[in-house]
Structure formats: structure tokens, C-alpha cells
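Q: Please design a sequence for this.
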């Protein structure tokens, strides 16, 4: 043990921060999946009969994005844990950690579909 309470292997405690981050992204994926399932039920009813098929698009794409979120979060957690375990060497740098670019892209995709969904609802309410 060192003076700071860290083991001789280093300051890394497996499972804490990477796992919490993964769990947060899982909750995000679950929320997107639930919202997408609800939109599959509601949007086709709100749109006119000739455009009802378009009401399924945001829900199906949202479910696909939720599945991709789930897989990307798990993969990033494994990569982060591996990078933190290997960064115990003195020559390691913070740049060795995997970035969150994939998760950021999925977040932007989900946000975009949220705005599209709001627009669909707003237009359908204004048309009535």
C-alpha cells in the first residue's frame, strides 16, 4: 500500500466508473426503446390514413438505435476497462482511453429523431 491508499498495482479500481457509465447508457437505451415502442403505437393513429406507414419509421429506427446504444456501451466499457488496466505502466497516457465518439453519434441520432417525432405530433395536431 502507498500513502494514498492505493495498491502497488495502481489507482485503478475495476468496475467503478466504467460500469457506472455503461449503466447510464443502458438506461438511455432503455428509455429510447420504450419511447420508440410507444411511438409505434401512437404515430400511425395520429397521421392521416395515406401516411400512416410513415408513423412506423421513427419507432423502428429508434428501436434499432437503442440496440446499437446497448452494444456500443458494453463494448466501450470493456475497452475502457482494458485500457485502464493496461495504463498502469508509466508510459501510458490519457489518450490511450477509448473515446465516446460512437455514443455521441448515437445521441445525436436519437435527439434528431426526437425532434422529428415532436414535429410529427405537432403537425398532426395542427392539421386536425
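A: Design:
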Amino acid at each position: 500500500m502507498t500513502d494514498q491508499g492505493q495498491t502497488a498495482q495502481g489507482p485503478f479500481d475495476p468496475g467503478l466508473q466504467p460500469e457506472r457509465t455503461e449503466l447510464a447508457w443502458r438506461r438511455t437505451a432503455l428509455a429510447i426503446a420504450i419511447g420508440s415502442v410507444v411511438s409505434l403505437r401512437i404515430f400511425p393513429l395520429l397521421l392521416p390514413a395515406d401516411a400512416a406507414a410513415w408513423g412506423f419509421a421513427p419507432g423502428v429506427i429508434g428501436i434499432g438505435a437503442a440496440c446499437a446504444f446497448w452494444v456500443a456501451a458494453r463494448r466501450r466499457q470493456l475497452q475502457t476497462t482494458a485500457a485502464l488496466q493496461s495504463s498502469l505502466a508509466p508510459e501510458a497516457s490519457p489518450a490511450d482511453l477509448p473515446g465516446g465518439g460512437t455514443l455521441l453519434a448515437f445521441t445525436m441520432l436519437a435527439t434528431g429523431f426526437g425532434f422529428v417525432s415532436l414535429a410529427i405530433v405537432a403537425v398532426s395536431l395542427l392539421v386536425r
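Q: Thanks. Anything notable?
A: Residues 17-86+97-127 form one domain. DSSP finds three helices and no strands in the chain.
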